[in-house]
# Entry
Amino acid sequence: MARVKTAATAEAVATPEAAAEAPRSVGLREVARAAGVSTATVSRAINNPDVVSADLRERIAIAVEQLGWVPDGAARALSTRRSQTIGAVFPALSVGDFAHATQAIQSELSRAGYTLLLACSDYDPELEIRQVRKFVERGVDGLILVGQAHHPELLPFLTRRGMPFVNTFVYDPQTHGTCVGPDNRKALMMMTDHLADLGHVRFGVIAQSTRNNDRASARLDGIRDALAQRGLAVRPQHFAMGEWSIADGRKLLRQLLETQPIPTAIICGNAHLAVGAVLEALALGIRLPDDLSIVGYDDIEIMSHLPVPVTTVRVPGAEIGQVAAQVLIARLEGLDCSASFEAEAELVIRASSGPPPQI
# Structure
């Protein structure tokens, strides 16, 4: 009997008369009338389909499709106090790991019925807090941020409003539960130890700018701490700082090579700086790693396809995005989340690094 009613409903909704009425304001009552159910049943089928039988879901789906009804998100947000949207503010969107994380966040949120709203702060804390305020004004249910260094008013603002948030691409045991990512200091200690174990004692650093970037600062701490444990240090003339630029990597490598004695190993603060340094070294006829070792942080695709593939620290950007979304969803839904907050960085050894040259 139910199947006959379903077919009849489909025919009735598909009639020219029904189609002619579709452009008019269509609401929950019209959908319920066409499907032959109550408005409460339609609401349950939309918001919690698991509690509605397959037959009823089919009837309601036919009515929704034929009437062209779109649930009123604003009205639903008023009744549930939830907008099913998550805001994410990233310092950059074109960088490999941030791009991978964004895609993973969107996929994970979509599976849970949430929509991602995205903004780029360009490492500007003033811009970041303005974007966060706009997201909160739009009624987002939670926020995904990058790092733990924010505008001093940002965390008090979120705390006062009870807004759930997760910091990404950073992990600190002292703030466990609020951040998902690698321990940046530990990751660069691992890389520095690898080079020192090969026999290097003269280290150069092409650092990423630490302006409003606590992850870059932690990486520098990792290099310095690892060297200090061995009684070593980076000489002032062997330190240079740039941004997210291959051109900066090329320019700053030339700057370090003008010093005497030159370093035997150069650690670059991000993937683009490392790619630029390797390209410039090859253009100058420097043999990698026989004359010089160059390593990086992050692992964008081109690093494994250069004439001399680049040794680097690989950060699981997609995993970080996925776990951050899972953690935030669990908090919003009142569920337990067993995901690991620390994403282990991986040392990827390629041809650009080796023992220092024999003198």
